[in-house]
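step=encode ok
step=design start
structure_in=
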């Protein structure tokens, strides 16, 4: 991709990354962009950066070369958030430029030293501090801690109204055809992109929804014209992304959207038979449904659907006195990401013993999930007609409850 001018004296430099697990955990089927920004006043600063993986820093240097900017001329590295996907390149950069200043929070200084031994020439900034680059580019710094590391700040260029937000207001998904702004996408592409934004939010930021809610409110009070995140597309309509992120934060405690996510696993097909029946029952209802089989679907994919769903259906067999293990792992992650206050229904098969309910209750209690369950349906071996009737009734009741609570939001 080529460098792109986005405002007077400000340029975006983006590198697409794919075929990795983000943070070593999360599938990114549509890739992700790593966005850096150059601010050229009388002095030159680069905001955020890229990872240190093979070839990625070199891609960034090639973009700088296209702009006729020598790396040695960059005086400031502004580190909004020092997680290695943004700061890993500094080790490489130090070999080229030994005379630069790093600007970031006090906690970023500590972390950069711990990760890369980089705490020389560090300027600690906090809420209300400014940096004058000349030619009108005065940067204000905003504290937005725990979005999603404790060091996080945002940088606001007062001349152009550009908010450099790093992980806040970001998304998964590659930049395609050099379209850098969300409003350049078609309506269908925007819907797809929103799913990537939800995937990003639920996988990366969800645990810190309270802090993200506060950060969104704080940033929305600024006279922002462009939101320039560290991942994903930029926004020329800041109100849209602020509103979307505010909604995503609210999904944690619920109610979320009028949607149901069915998460299921089956050892020998007995629970699978009941799932097929439940899906047919759901198809008769006027409600959005997401269906995921574990462990075939990753927990990040499941989390993406569960985050916006007010209703959850769990279908799994008992395995050695406990839940089917992939279901237990997914539920643990949903709890850690604070998917709270859902309406839920469970059914499944057992063989020589039950016991899934006991482990389910333990996880829900341990992680304070506060899910409200309809009476579960368990059956020995293959489901009988009477079991399937109970499952149909449970599905209908769940749909009813989800619609009622969502209509009262």
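sequence_out=
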């Amino acid at each position: 991709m080529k460098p792109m001018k986005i405002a007077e004296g400000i340029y975006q430099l983006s590198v697409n990354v794919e075929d990795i697990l983000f943070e070593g955990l999360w599938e990114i089927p549509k890739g992700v962009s790593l966005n850096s920004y150059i601010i050229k006043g009388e002095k030159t600063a680069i905001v955020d950066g890229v990872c240190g993986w093979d070839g990625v820093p070199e891609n960034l240097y090639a973009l700088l070369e296209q702009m006729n900017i020598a790396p040695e001329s960059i005086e400031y590295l502004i580190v909004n958030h020092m997680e290695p996907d943004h700061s890993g390149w500094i080790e490489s950069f130090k070999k080229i430029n030994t005379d630069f200043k790093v600007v970031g929070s006090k906690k970023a200084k500590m972390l950069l030293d711990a990760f890369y031994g980089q705490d020389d020439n560090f300027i600690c900034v906090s809420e209300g501090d400014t940096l004058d680059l000349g030619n009108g580019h005065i940067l204000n710094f905003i504290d937005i801690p725990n979005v999603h590391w404790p060091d996080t700040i945002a940088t606001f260029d007062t001349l152009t109204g550009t908010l450099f937000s790093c992980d806040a207001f970001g998304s998964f998904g590659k930049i395609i055809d050099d379209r850098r702004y969300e409003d350049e996408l078609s309506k269908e592409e925007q819907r797809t992109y929103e799913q990537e934004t939800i995937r990003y939010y639920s996988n990366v930021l969800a645990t810190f929804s309270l802090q993200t809610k506060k950060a969104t409110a704080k940033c929305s009070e600024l006279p922002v014209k462009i939101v320039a995140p560290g991942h994903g597309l930029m926004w020329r309509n800041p109100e849209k992304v602020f509103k979307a992120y505010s909604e995503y934060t609210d999904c944690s405690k619920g109610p979320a959207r009028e949607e149901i996510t069915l998460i299921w696993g089956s050892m020998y097909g007995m629970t699978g038979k009941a799932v097929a029946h439940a899906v047919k029952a759901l198809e008769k209802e006027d409600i959005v449904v997401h269906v995921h089989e574990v462990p075939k679907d990753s927990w990040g994919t499941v989390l993406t659907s569960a985050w916006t769903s007010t209703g959850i259906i769990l279908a799994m067999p008992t395995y050695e006195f406990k839940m089917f293990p992939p279901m237990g792992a997914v539920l643990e992650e949903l709890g850690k990401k604070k998917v709270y206050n859902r309406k839920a229904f469970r059914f499944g098969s057992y063989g020589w013993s039950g016991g899934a309910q006991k482990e389910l209750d333990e996880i829900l209690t341990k992680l304070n999930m506060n899910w409200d369950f309809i009476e579960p349906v368990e059956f020995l071996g293959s489901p009988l007609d009477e079991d399937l009737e109970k499952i149909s009734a449970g599905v209908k009741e769940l749909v009813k409850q989800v619609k009622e609570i969502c209509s009262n939001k």
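step=design ok
step=annotate ok -> DSSP finds twelve helices and 22 strands in the chain.
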